[in-house]
């Protein structure tokens, strides 16, 4: 049984069923508004096959390139069908599960670009000194592989790692270092889409602005089910609206579970004319609709 496909169909069926309920229960609710995920982020599933994604209603699809069981030909075929397939790539953190990670990168003998100065919260990833040429050449090779495989583009994650180095002696302008890294990746292939996750404050910078095609914004209104302080939401929205006006693609995803929050997210997000989706916080592809 194709569970993923059931999910995709389930989203649509569930949504229609809820719309029906609304009409019966409460006519004052805006029953013409039916919300369901407008894109797919799934960084956990190993069963995202060509067949499944081809049948899915999503245009924008974000996957972990080391998990999807798709051949290069299948990725290219999806693109011919109008899909935009973005591969995940962490630039501010090195991940132990990736093929670039060496067996002898252990405490006491990490390469210099791995930052082990603070205990890592995650056992699977570590902050990088992302400005160092050794790390950047690993990233460039990785990006080249993704380009050659046929992906439409990449989602650069952990861009906000630069904040960790702000007001430290090590680097004077860590934000500029991050922007230079991203601008460098942009140079590598002009027509390969570059998306970044969050770190929207960098959008003040012209070079950054010119370097990216879109933003994956998470936690704009809700941190799981906790509403974000309105000042913070407004701060984020200031940059996202600017990016939207510049015709960048905004993939906005929060992770609430509570249906009231799910609906509130969709209404607020849709008002901004972003592409909106509620997912399980584990990013396993499970979506919520309203
Ligand atoms: C956030 O923005 C909205 C409208 O854009 C405004 O009504 C509200 O007062 C702002 N809130 C804060 C805390 O800045």
TrEMBL record:
InterPro entries: Aldolase_TIM, GH, GH114_TIM-barrel, TM1410-rel. It comes from the Eukaryota. Residues 1-17 form the signal peptide. It holds the Pfam family Glyco_hydro_114. Residues 60-208 form the Glycoside-hydrolase family GH114 TIM-barrel domain. Keywords: Signal. This is Glycoside-hydrolase family GH114 TIM-barrel domain-containing protein. It comes from Ramazzottius varieornatus (Water bear).
């Amino acid at each position: 049984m194709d569970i993923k496909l059931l999910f995709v169909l389930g989203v649509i069926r569930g949504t229609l069923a809820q719309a029906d309920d609304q009409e019966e229960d409460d006519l004052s609710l805006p029953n013409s508004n039916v919300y369901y995920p407008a894109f797919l982020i799934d960084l956990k599933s190993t069963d995202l096959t060509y067949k499944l994604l081809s049948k899915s209603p999503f245009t924008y699809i974000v996957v972990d390139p080391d998990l999807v069981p798709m051949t290069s030909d299948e990725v290219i075929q999806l693109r011919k069908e109008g899909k935009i397939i973005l591969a995940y790539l962490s630039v501010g953190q090195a991940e132990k599960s990736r093929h670039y990670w060496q067996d002898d990168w252990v405490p006491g003998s990490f390469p210099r670009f791995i930052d082990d100065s603070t205990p890592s919260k995650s056992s699977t990833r570590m902050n990088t000194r992302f400005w160092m040429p050794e790390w950047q050449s690993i990233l460039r090779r990785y990006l080249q592989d993704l380009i050659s495989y046929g992906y439409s583009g990449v989602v650069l994650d952990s861009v906000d790692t630069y904040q960790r180095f702000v007001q430290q002696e090590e680097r004077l302008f860590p934000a500029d270092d991050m922007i230079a890294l991203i601008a460098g990746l942009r140079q590598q292939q002009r027509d390969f889409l570059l998306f970044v996750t969050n770190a929207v404050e960098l959008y003040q910078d012209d070079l950054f602005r010119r370097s990216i095609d879109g933003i994956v914004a998470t936690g704009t209104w809700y941190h799981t089910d906790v509403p974000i302080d309105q000042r913070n939401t407004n701060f984020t929205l200031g940059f996202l609206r600017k990016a939207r006006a510049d015709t960048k693609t905004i993939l906005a995803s929060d992770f609430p579970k509570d249906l009231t929050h799910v609906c509130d997210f969709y209404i607020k997000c849709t008002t901004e004319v972003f592409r909106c989706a509620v997912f399980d916080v584990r990013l396993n592809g499970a979506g919520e609709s309203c």
